[in-house]
C-alpha cells in the first residue's frame, strides 16, 4: 500500500519541532482572556461538580481543538467558589510529549510552594518518591490539579501513580482533552462536560469584542459596512471560538473596508493560515486554525490517518452513513490488519475512535445507541481535504460547480470522487485520459437521481479495470442494463448501484470473486438476475443487498460454502425451511427474507437458533400470509425487527427478546388490546413504527407501559381514540402521527414531560381544529418544544 507521505515531518529535528509545538500551546493560568462569550453556564456546572461533597474525583472537559476547552478551564480555575474551597492549586500543560517525572515534579512544586532548599531536595528524588509525596499531599490537603491538554491514556497511566484515585479525598482533578479515551481511562465515574460551538449571536458578540470594539461610536457608516462583511465571514467559522478569534485578530489590524474585503474574498485561506497571504507575510502558520487542528491529525496512528483522509471523498455537509463508510474502509484495505471475522467491529471502532478524538462529529445514533451517521466540521474537512491533496490521496472532479476547471488527476492518484449535477451523459471520463491506475471511484450528486445511458456505463467498466471500489448510486435511464463488461472488474471489492434504474444483471457478474459488498437494491421495477448460481463463487462476500423485486426471489439462491464471513443478506426469497441454510453462516448479523408460503408446519418444533443474528426483516408477500413467529423467535438476540404481514397473534414469548430496541410493523391487519399489552411490555424497546393497519378503536397505553420508548411513528392507521395513562411512555422524546383516523390528540399526552418533538400530518379536519392556541387539545401539547403540523401541503413549525 502506498504511504501517501503520512509519516512526513514538517521540519527536520523532531525534538526541536515538538519543543516549539509545546511552547506555542502552553496556557498560563494567570492570563485570563477578558473576551469570553458563552462560557458562564459551563463554568457554573463544572465549578459545582468540583466543590460538591463526595463529588467526582475527575472532572473532564472534552472537545475538538479550538473549541475553548482551556479558556473554559481557566474560568473554572479562577471561579470564586473554587478558590475558596481548595487549599492549593497546580496547573500543568501536558501536550503530546508527556514526561512523567517532570510533570509530577511540577505539580508537587506548585502545590507545596517549596523553599529553594526544598526544591533542590525534590530535584534529587526518584519518580516513585515524587509520586508518593504528591499522593500524600493530596490526601492531607484539598488540592485542585488542572491537567491541560492531555492527549493519550498512556500519558494518564504514567501520571496516575501520583494521585490517590481509590481513596477518600477532597482533592480533585480538572483535565482538558481532545481524546475521549483519556476521560474514560482516568475515571469511569467522573463527570464529563462537552462544550458546544457558539451560536450566531454568541459568535458575533465574540467577534465584535475582538475586532470592532468601540467602532460603532466613531464611524457608524464604516461600522455597518464592516459588520456586513464580518457577518458573512463568520459563517465560515461555524461557531468555533478559535476560528473567530483568528479572524478577528487579523481584521483588528486592518483599518479600511477595502482591507476587510480582501480578507473576505479569500476567507478560508486566511482562517487556515492566520496571517496575511502575501509574499512579505511573516509567521509559520502557527496563528491559524489549521495548525491547531493538525495537531490532532499528527497524533493519529497510520491506519486512522488513512480512515480520516478517506472522509475527504464526501461533499461538504454530507451526512455519512457509518454502515457504508466502514464497508468502504474494508474494501480499501485500511482494516487489513484485523482478523477476518472481526473486520466490521474493528472498522466501527475506528470511526468511534475518530469521534472520541474529536476529528469526526456524530450525526445520528441508532436505536442501539451506536453511531448511525457522522459528519465533518467544516474546518476539520478543510484540513482533511488539504492533507488528502498534499499526499496525492484523492482527486475530486466537481461537475456540479458551473465554472470550475476540471483538471485531470495525475497517475499517482488512486481515488476519484466525482460530484455530479443532474445529467451524467456528457461526462466523458475515460474518453481521452487513461484511468487504468484508479482503484476507487465514488459518485456523489446534489439531487436525488441522475440521468445515465448504457453507453456511458459501458465505457466506465472498460476503462477502470483495476477498480476495487465503485459507488454508483441513484442513476436513472431508459432500459438501463448493467453491461457484460462489469465482469472485467476482477479486483472489485465494493459495488453499490443502490437506487439505480438497473433492469438486469449480467451473468458475468459471477466473475467478481473478490467482492466484499454488493448493493443492488432498487426502488423501481423488476430486476432480472440470470440464475440461482450467480453468487455461488463469491467466497469473500460479506454483505449482499438484493432488490426487493427480482427474477430469482422465488428460487433458492446459492452462496459459496466458503463464504463463512457473510454478515448481511437482504431481500432473499425463502420457502418453507430454506431458512435452515443460514444456520451454517455463523457470522451472519443482518437477514432480510421474503416469504412465499406458510412454512409454519415445516419449521414447527425445530430447535434451530440463530444466536448471532442482530437484525431481522420478514416480508410476507401475500395478504393472507401470517407472520411466521417461529422464525422470529428463533433469533433471541436481535436488536432490530421489521415485520410486514398480517399479525394474527402476538405471542408472549416475544418478551424474551431482551435486546430488541427497534420494531417496525407494516400491513399488519388488526392489532387487538392484548397485542398492545405485549408490545408495551417489551423490556428494551426504544423505537416503534406502526404503519398501515388497524389499532383498537379505543387505544389505551397503560401506566408503566413502554418504559424506554423514545420514538413512536404511527402512519395510516385506523383508530378513533387514544388514551395515555399517567406514567405511560415516560421516556418518549419524539412522536409522529400521520394519515390516521384519530379524532383528537391523545388524552394524557400532557403527562409525557420528556416529549420534545411532535409531528402531525394529513389528519382529519376536526383533529386540526382542536390543536390551535385556545383549542380543546392545546393544553395537551403546549409543553412540547417543537410542534410541526403539515396539512394540505402547508407547514407550520412552532418553536417555544
UniProtKB/TrEMBL annotation:
The keyword Transferase is annotated on this UniProt entry: no
GO molecular function, one term: ADP binding
Superkingdom assignment: Eukaryota
InterPro entries, A to Z: Apaf_helical (IPR042197), Disease_R_plants (IPR044974), LRR_dom_sf (IPR032675), LRR_R13L4/SHOC2-like (IPR055414), NB-ARC (IPR002182), P-loop_NTPase (IPR027417), WH-like_DNA-bd_sf (IPR036388), WHD_DRP (IPR058922)
Short name of any one Pfam family annotated for the protein: NB-ARC
Protein name: Disease resistance protein At1g50180 isoform X2
Domain Disease resistance protein winged helix as annotated: residue spans: 314-384
Alphabetical UniProt keywords: Plant defense, Repeat
Record-annotated Disease resistance R13L4/SHOC-2-like LRR domain positions: 437-759
UniProt source species: Prunus avium (Cherry)
Keyword Cytoplasm among UniProt keywords: no
Biological process (GO), any one: defense response to other organism
Domain NB-ARC: 46-212
